[in-house]
Amino acid sequence: MVDQEKIKEAVRLLLEGIGEDPGRIGLKDTPDRVARMWQELAAGYEQTAEEPLSRVFPVEGGEMVLEKDITFYSTCEHHLMPFYGKAHVAYVPDGRVVGLSKLARTVEVFARRLQIQEKMTGQIADAMMEYLAPKGVMVVLEAEHTCMTARGIKKPGSKTVTIATRGVFAENEALQTRFFQMLGK
Ligand code: ZN
Questions:
Q1: What is the pLDDT of residues 1-34, one digit of tens each?
Q2: Has residue 46 been placed in a domain?
Q3: How far is the CA of 80 from the centre of ligand 1 (A)?
Q4: Is 123 a catalytic residue?
Q5: What digits encode the pLDDT tens for the residues 91-113?
Q6: Quick check: is 50 in a domain?
Q7: How far apart are CA 52 and CA 4, in angstroms?
Q8: Which of 23, 113, 136, 141 is an S-S bond match for 168, by CB 3.0 to 4.6 Å?
Q9: Contact criterion met (CB below 8 Å) for 97 and 105
């Protein structure tokens, strides 16, 4: 549970720190709004991927399942600024599959925390291996980091792409190629 009072106090201090007047009409409710927003942005700390990934169905055969273009929003732990984009999650089942919406739920569990993209990519892959236990997993995230695009070198639209492979995807380059073919890249 986030500590709403601490966040409100921090936002008031931040506003003062940048030379603003936290008491002026437009900012009066801002600490409260920001505190409520963080309730959602930090919701992942209270969740694990075990719940969505335990809803499994038996299947025969083991062709790759790819859920692509899962939109996510996360927060960069270095700057507390949003980074957002698409997650593409694939696995080769070992006798069981999960409902497709559960892959999006899994991405959400790890996005709703302070993150670095590289770590989040690996966490999704590791959670899939742990709870779904497929033959292999491949996760690709492409995201725009507003800490980069809103300041400094300012390259709007530039994307950071990260990849994690586990199991058969780590060993089998043809499977990785197939992933990108199915992705249409
Ligand atoms: Zn950053």
A1: 789 999 999 999 999 999 999 999 999 999 999 9
A2: no
A3: 7
A4: no
A5: 999 999 998 899 999 999 999 99
A6: no
A7: 28
A8: 136
A9: no
* Together in a domain, 24 and 61: no
Q: Is 78 a catalytic residue?
A: yes
Residue 27 belongs to domain with CATH number: 1.10.286.10
99 and 159 within one domain: yes
Q: Determine what percent of the chain falls in helix, strand and coil, rounding each to the nearest 5.
A: 45, 25, 30
What order of strands is seen across the sheet that includes strand 65-76? 114-115, 65-76, 82-92, 136-145, 160-167
Whole-angstrom CA distances from 65 to 5, 78, 179 are 44, 33, 9
Say if residues 164 and 117 touch (Cβ distance below 8 Å).
no
- Report every protein residue that has its C-beta within 5 angstroms of ion ligand 1: 76, 78-79, 147
Range of the domain at 60: 55-183
Domains: count for the chain: 2
On whether both 79 and 165 belong to a single domain, the answer is yes
Domain assignment present for 48? no
Residue 160 token pair: 């950071």
pTM over 0.85: yes
| Cα 11 to middle of ligand 1, angstroms | 19
| CA separation for the pair 132, 103 (Å, rounded) | 11
Position 47 in a domain: no
Pair 16, 80 in one domain: no
The whole-angstrom separation of Cα 89 and Cα 76 is: 21
88 noted as active-site residue: no
